[in-house]
Amino acid sequence: MNVAALAQLGPADAAFEAVVRPVPRPGPGEFLVKIAACGVCGHDALARRGELAATVGDVLGHEIAGVVVAAGSGDVADWVGRRVALVQRRPCGQCPDCARGATSQCRRGPGFYGDDLPGGYAEYVLADPLNAVRLPDGVADEVAAVASCGIGTGLHALRKARLEAGDVVVITGAGGGVGFNAVRTAKALGLGVIACTGDDAKVASIVEAGADRVLVRPDVAAVRGCARDLDRPRGVDAVIEVTGGPTFATSLRVLRPEGRLVLVGNTVPADLAIAPGLTIVKELQVIGSAHATRADLQEVIDMIDTKRLDPIRPRRLPMSEASTAHAALDERTATGRTVLVP
Q1: How far apart, in whole angstroms, are the C-alpha atoms of residue 252 and residue 268?
Q2: What is the model's pTM?
């Protein structure tokens, strides 16, 4: 099969090379997925730059959708011929973390696509029922590919924030893949949304995604002003912090008493200033939020299928243009997600 493998760690230019590898064989309980689309994620960019566990020769990509074309032994034969979307981690389904539904914390399963497992910048990938969701006919491949990481990560964070319809949330990094889709998802859940971005050129797209207010590189006063406009004079109910270091201090200061900051990303690795005095006096909560679970992915697919959520379709590029997709990530010129098509 053809894959786009890491040729070198570092800049996007010439980072990938076309390589032919054997088609993997499904083992007991596994099935083989012919990939229809694979999203390009910030996690992939970190791996390409050498900031995660990936090494030269690895195949990145964990935002995967396709069709099951073969099955190993065990009770998985009925998956053959089914269109599926995949969760990025393949959990074991047996450890205490899996038993309590925290499959994102499982360390006994086969691993994480692109780090421990060959990923989706390829024609085929292995999966199993624990990390796959069957797709209705009305959900397009490119949307399904980003449903777990690109959309489900935001849904997972919004659930962690314990928000109810009518609450007001700030979403940072709203021009990127996770933040952009989180805006759309938050509106589908009936939330008021203040979106923050560092790029004036993305404002119109974020407004179209449903944000009630869009701010470019805002300070505390600007966010608080929008919060007052949305009937939150003491601050917002929660912040979905996608950017991390560059906006973390502002995000803490715009929360109402007992507000929640849910940390999803840290685009510029840095020590985060928790501001202990402020956090104690206002009884704030800082909550970590990992990637989507299979349950999150199923909820996203159901929301799309029933028209409660109308995601923006990702941009499509051929797999041979993986470097182009990564360059757009690095330069922050793309709004939303890009998918690679074998």
Answers
A1: 17
A2: 0.92
